[in-house]
Specification:
This protein has six helices and no strands. The protein has 137 residues and is mainly alpha-helical. The chain is globular and about 70 Å long. The termini are far apart.
Amino acid sequence: MSTANSSSNNIAWANGFFDCCSPGKLCLLTSCCPCITYGKTQYRVHHGSLEGYSCCNSSCIVFAIAAHFGLQFVPATMQRTHIREKYNLHGSWLGDFCRSGCCTCCVLMQNEKESEQLGALSEPYRSNTAMVYPRAK
């Protein structure tokens, strides 16, 4: 049985789908300007941290254009699927699609919270590049 189809090895989402009112700042930001939350999550998932992040990035613009045409659920579905596969979370593509179509803001907030929590756990160790060892004589 392949890993992609097996849900026995998958972990549960740490944040519920309807836990979107907490924290309030994320809820307000996503309700008013979902493209910023989408872009922030995309940046964190692909770069491992928010170092160098700008709120008006290419992902934000893509989401805004999709939303202009009523297709905001498409990038939200793609992002949720990517996060689910990257962090081995429960679910399926069909579930991602249905949730994104039902409540895009809830999906964006859940994606952001999961990527923030799980991304921090999976960041690789970064050595101090300024460290210099004395040469042996």
